[in-house]
Amino acid sequence: MKIKILLCMILCSTMNLLAQNNFIYTNNDVSPNTVSAFRVNADGSLTLLPGSPFATGGHGGNDRTIDPEKITTARVAGRGFLYAANIADGTVSGFRINSQTGALVAVPGLPVPIGAVNSSPALASSPNGKFLFATDDFTPVVHVFRIARATGSLREVAGSPFNVGERSQRLKVSPSGQFLAVGLESINAVGIFAIGDDGTLTPAPGSPVLLSATPTGIDINCHNNRMFVAVSGGFSSIDVFHMAEDGSLTPAPGSPFPSGARFLVSALTLSPNNEFLFTSNTFNEAVSSFAVQANGALKPVSGSPFAAADFVGKIETTRGGDFVYASLFARAAVDGWSVSPNGTLARVPGSPFFTGQSPVTESSMVAFPAPSCRAAELDGDEKETVERRHER
To answer: What is the pLDDT of residue 360?
Structure first.
C-alpha cells in the first residue's frame, strides 16, 4: 500500500509540473514602460494575452541598448512574481503572475530604486524565491532584496548594496541557491559570491576569476559544478569552468570555445537537462546550439547556427526545454524554435511574434515558469525511479 501511495504521489507531482501553462514576458523599455505577455501554445507559437502590454509604473530608456537581464521571475511559496527594470528611473517594478492565465497584477509598494538611471541593469532571483538581486554597469555594487512571500514586495536586506569590486553587468544564481555569479565588465572577470541565509554576499575563494574577454552572459548547470560564460570583445567565445563546492573556478580543458558568432553573444542559456547550450548571436541574426560534453567541452550540433528573423537579444527555454525563444530588439518581437532530441532547432509556426510596442527597444524577455532542472528530470531520472519502484 505504501508503495502505491508513493507511486501516486510521484505521478501526480509529475503531471502537475507538465500541465503548467507556459508564458513569455518582455520588458519593452518604452516610456512609460510596459511588459508584454504571451501564452506558449502547444506548437510553440505565441499568443499575445488580453490586457497586454501591462504598465510598470516606471519609464524605460528608449536608448536602444542591449540589456538582456532587465526582467526576471521568482516563485515564492507557490506564487509567481515578475520583476522588470525601468532604465530611465533606475527602479524595479513587480507583478503577481496568474499561473493559469498569465495576467499580471502590480505588486504594492513598487517601483523601488535599484541603481543609477539610464544604466544597463541586470536582475536575478534565487531559485527558492527568497531574494532578488539587482545591479547596473555604472556602479560596483549589487543590491539584495528579500521577496515577501505573500505579496512579492521587496525589502532591501541589511548591509545592501554589497560592493563587488568592479562595475558589473550580468548576474546568475546557482541552482543550489548558494552562489551568485557577477560579470565584472570593467576587468573582464567573473566574481563568485556565497549567499548567506540573510542575503549577505561573501567572495568565494579565488574570486574574481579573469575571463578571455568581457562577460555578456552566464549560466550554471544543475549539478552546480559547471559555469558557462559568454564573452565578447575583438572576438566572441564561451569560457567554461569547473565549479567546486566552495565556489572556486577552474578552466575546463579546451576553454574558451568558439561561439559561432562573428562579434557579439549577448546571452546564453542551458537546456533544462543541461545537454545543450544555446547562444544569442546578436548581429549574426542567429542562435547557436552546442552539445555539452561530459568534461564541459562544447560541440556545435548539426546545422548550427540557426537563422533568426533579426538581431537577437535575450535567449531562454520553456520550463521543460521543448522550445527556445530569443528577443528581437530591432523589431519589438520574439522569435521561437522547437528543440529536437539532438539539439537541432526548427522555427515554430508564425515566428516572429510582436509585442505591440515600439521597435528598437525591447531586448529582454523571460519564460514563466522558469526553466527547471526538476522538469527536465521528469523525462529521465524521475521516470526511471517510478519504473523501478513499480517493478518492486
So the answer is: 60
Domain span holding position 392: 1-20+378-392
Q: What is the pLDDT of residue 216?
A: 94
Q: What is the pLDDT of residue 260?
A: 87
For residue 388, pLDDT over 60 is answered with: no
Kindly state the DSSP code that residue 234 receives in the 8-state scheme: S
Burial of 122 (0-12, 13-18, 19+ CB in 10 A): buried
Global confidence as pTM: 0.91
CA separation (Å) from 130 to 74, 88, 156, 199?
A: 8, 27, 12, 9
CA torsion through residues 185, 186, 187, 190, sign: negative
Closest CA to 260 of 280, 240, 239: 280
Q: How many domains does the chain have?
A: 2
Cα end-to-end span (Å), the chain:
12
Q: Quick one: 113 and 223 in the same domain?
A: yes
Domain membership flag for residue 373: no
**3-state DSSP assignment of residue 6:** helix
250 within 8 A of 241, measured Cβ to Cβ: yes
Q: Do residues 1 and 90 share a domain?
A: no
Q: What are the cell numbers at 354?
A: 510582436
